[in-house]
Amino acid sequence: QVQLVESGGGSVQAGGSLRLSCAASGYTYSSYCMAWFRQAPGKGREGVAFIDSNGSTSYADSVKGRFTISQDNSKNTLYLQMNSLKPEDTAMYYCAAEIDYCKTPFHYWGQGTQVTVSS
């Protein structure tokens, strides 16, 4: 019954910014982890940023200092603020959620939103 729907993807030039959103529904757990993953064609899925129900965050080294994960619990929405975008950031970005804490495998996934960064 948990559903995650991403939005906010698009095409930007290198150095630009985007904010991705993930609207969650049917998520009634008090302890959880939410995350953003990305996958480029021909490459594996990469964990980008994580946040738990206590607000603790973690980032992949490739995006640290440029991306910020946050959540608005009143709106049941997860965000990924992406600044100083690089062509290497081009990928499908997926919202994911897991019960209790950040651990694999994640059981709930959104449909993905495309981010394309041109040089």
The tally of strands reads 11
Element order, helices and strands? Answer: EEEEEEEEEEE
Name the average pLDDT.
95
Low confidence ranges: none
Tell me roughly what share of residues is in helical segments: under 10%
What is the beta-strand fraction?
Answer: over 45%
State the secondary-structure class.
mainly beta
- Silhouette: globular
* Count of DSSP H/I helices: 0
Head-to-tail CA distance between termini: 40 Å
Using only C-alpha atoms, the radius of gyration works out to 13 Å
How would a crystallographer describe the biggest sheet? 7 strands, mixed
Offer a quick outline of the entry.
With 119 residues, the chain is mostly beta strands. It is built from no helices and 11 strands. Strands 2, 4, 5, 6, 9, 10 and 11 form a 7-stranded mixed sheet that branches. A 4-stranded antiparallel sheet has the order 1-3-8-7, with no helix packed on it.
Which key terms come to mind for this protein?
single chain, 119 residues, mainly beta, four-stranded antiparallel sheet, 11 strands, globular
Give the topology:
Blueprint: E1 3-7, E2 10-13, E3 18-25, E4 32-39, E5 46-52, E6 57-59, E7 67-72, E8 77-82, E9 91-99, E10 108-109, E11 113-118
Parallel strand pairs: 2-11
Antiparallel strand pairs: 1-3, 3-8, 4-5, 4-9, 5-6, 7-8, 9-10, 9-11
How does this structure look, described?
It is built from no helices and eleven strands. It is globular and about 40 Å long. With 119 residues, it is mainly beta. A hairpin with a 4-residue loop joins strand 5 and strand 6.
